[in-house]
Amino acid sequence: MSAKQATILPIEDLPAELLLHVSSCLSLRFASRLARANKKFHQILNIELYKRSRKGWFPLAFGACTDNTDTLALCIEVGAPVDFHIRQTMGDFRWCGESYYMVGGWRALRQAIHDNSPKAVKFLLDHGACPNSTPEELHGKGPGEPPFAIVFRRGPRSPVEAKAIAIALLDAGADTSTVSETQREELLKMKEIDGYFAKGWA
């Protein structure tokens, strides 16, 4: 009596259509893990995963946190509203060697300002993000702290990034009346004087 040998077909040899079907049967979390298994899976599954994230647009938060403009561009390409209010998620997220325990609860622009991500801030502003508090934020959806107030609060921790963010907000026409006269003067000095940082930042 001879033993039958099972034929093993590696999952990476599956046709793209079948791989997409398998991915659609998985939760978003497991499908994204599958997409990270190798380059081929990433190429096949990535856009579909972004489309599946439309309910909460969590990748916007990822792109904002990590200063990843490629991620932000993909979100916008598949239809993410640039000022979408991302649902707050608690958990243990590790991106680019950094730990994040709370993500979202605000727009991607606020997330990028809070996490000192100047490239993400500039990208979002260039793609139409409101440089001020949105009407929803002013009426209680998310934090009401104006963007410049966040910049001044975060400036001492990361002065170089905060200065770049402040200049990007100024260039986008952000309302400077939301900060004190002294802070407005500091903003103008940072914009005009190379190497200058607001008092208390450096």
Automatic annotation (TrEMBL):
The protein's matches in InterPro entries, at most eight in alphabetical order, are given as: Ankyrin_rpt, Ankyrin_rpt-contain_sf, F-box-like_dom_sf, F-box_dom
SUPFAM superfamilies xrefs: Ankyrin repeat, F-box domain
Question: What would be one Pfam family of this protein?
Answer: F-box-like
Q: Where is the F-box domain?
A: 11-52
Top-level taxon in the UniProt lineage: Eukaryota
Which CDD domains does the entry mention? Answer: F-box_SF (cd09917)
Gene3D superfamilies of this UniProt entry? Ankyrin repeat-containing domain (1.25.40.20)
Q: What is this protein called?
A: F-box domain-containing protein
Starting at the broadest rank, the lineage of the source organism is: Eukaryota, Fungi, Dikarya, Ascomycota, Pezizomycotina
